[in-house]
From TrEMBL:
<dbReference type="InterPro" id="IPR000920">
    <property type="entry name" value="Myelin_P0-rel"/>
</dbReference>
<keyword id="KW-0325">Glycoprotein</keyword>
<dbReference type="InterPro" id="IPR003599">
    <property type="entry name" value="Ig_sub"/>
</dbReference>
<feature type="region of interest" description="Disordered">
    <location>
        <begin position="187"/>
        <end position="231"/>
    </location>
</feature>
<keyword id="KW-1133">Transmembrane helix</keyword>
<keyword id="KW-0472">Membrane</keyword>
<dbReference type="InterPro" id="IPR013783">
    <property type="entry name" value="Ig-like_fold"/>
</dbReference>
<feature type="compositionally biased region" description="Basic and acidic residues">
    <location>
        <begin position="218"/>
        <end position="231"/>
    </location>
</feature>
<protein>
    <recommendedName>
        <fullName>Ig-like domain-containing protein</fullName>
    </recommendedName>
</protein>
<dbReference type="GO" id="GO:0005886">
    <property type="term" value="C:plasma membrane"/>
</dbReference>
<feature type="domain" description="Ig-like">
    <location>
        <begin position="17"/>
        <end position="138"/>
    </location>
</feature>
<dbReference type="InterPro" id="IPR007110">
    <property type="entry name" value="Ig-like_dom"/>
</dbReference>
<dbReference type="InterPro" id="IPR036179">
    <property type="entry name" value="Ig-like_dom_sf"/>
</dbReference>
<dbReference type="GO" id="GO:0042552">
    <property type="term" value="P:myelination"/>
</dbReference>
<keyword id="KW-0393">Immunoglobulin domain</keyword>
<feature type="transmembrane region" description="Helical">
    <location>
        <begin position="145"/>
        <end position="171"/>
    </location>
</feature>
<comment type="similarity">
    <text>Belongs to the myelin P0 protein family.</text>
</comment>
Amino acid sequence: MLTILALASVVLLGIVPQQSEAIVIYTGWERHALVGSDIRLSCSFFSWRWTSDDVTFSWSYRADGARDAISIFHYTGGAPYVDNKGPFRDRLEFVGNPGRRDGSILLKNLDFGDNGTFTCDAKNPPDIVGRASSVRLLVFEKVPIQAGVITGSIIGAVLGLLLLIVVIYYLMRFLVARRVFNLSVSKHGKKGKGKEGSQQRQGPTLSIGDPSKLKAAASEKKKQESRKDKK
């Protein structure tokens, strides 16, 4: 009896299909392009399973101002299919690699009317549960500078100005200190020369007032007076 139950459980487990797990799909957030240019819209997915031979990709498009989306591309059974009635029937090319979980498409010769939202969905059986991902396309005559670039430029300019102010400040301090040092050296030099000149002027006076010389002069004067008296 136990053997029969064991065999029955094995058969039942073999019949029950594997449970599907969630699949995560990735696209860009927003893309900018010029009129007349080409652009690649990327789509990839993450799945815990090995890439299945039955992997599928599908793209849909909703134009700005439109309520409903239209199908523009499918990849299934190992072959790509472009919708033959949509606005991209002659301007869409599949450039992905399903074996690497890449379902990217290339849109050619863009126009202002191509502005809108592109949605990619992917299935990797048995992983078929997941939320599609969307990317918004904006076509311009000239690609605008993004806000991040403008902010970065402003921050760079402010930092450059602050650095310039700091350099000028320390340069002015250095020039002022050098000027003060030169004036100080010049004043000390003039004082030294003045002292030497005064010492030279005072030299003869000191020699005249020398006591030994005065005494010798007085003695010589007395001798002369005594000689006069003898005569």
